[in-house]
TrEMBL record:
A GO molecular-function descriptor: methyltransferase activity
Record-linked InterPro entries: Methyltransf_25, SAM-dependent_MTases_sf
GO biological process annotation, one example: antibiotic biosynthetic process
Organism, as annotated: Streptomyces lydicus
Protein name: Methyltransferase
Amino acid sequence: MTELDTVRATREAYDAIAAVYAQKFHDFLHDRPLERALLDAFAELVRTSGGGVADLGCGPGQVTAHLHGLGLDAFGVDASPVMVELAREAGPGLRFEVGSMAALDIEDGALGGVLSRWSVIHTPPRDLPAVLAEIARVLAPGGHALIAFPATDGAHIETESYDHAVVTAYRWSPDRFAELLRAHGLTESARLVIEPKPTDRRQFREVQLLARKA
């Protein structure tokens, strides 16, 4: 499957479940204090360096709105037109655009921050470097990227696919992911690893990597 086919399949899958997804996750940050704290820190770093923030794979826009509430000039980008429409309805004063993470309609060095919360999980390993290259391209020097994804079960396993409820997804070794970021000029500055709850259906560790463009 080509990169274009992968993006199309992901877009169509999320278009189909957008309304259910928006309802299910509309207040998911409420019981995630660690993620809220990290978003607060991310917002402070971006405010210090200056510039807007792109929420890549924004879905129905809850996190974009949260970032806006933290004082950031945040806007959302998603491959799913239906998700973007729901985001615009929920946040009429905010900016949301349809777009691909591998080909962003954003000028070089225009942003102070990029958030990618679980939005890279459907990107096949062969295509991930192109996405990371785009993130690096749109960030200004000194800008920050916060990227979240599920971890593999050991550092010796660089990446592996798993059966996601919507479309095939991928887990990554945090160390390997950090290497890929460095290859594109993004240096890891912090890492948060959240262990799964015993009641979670998938017993995957959640990784939040914060990186800075030199």
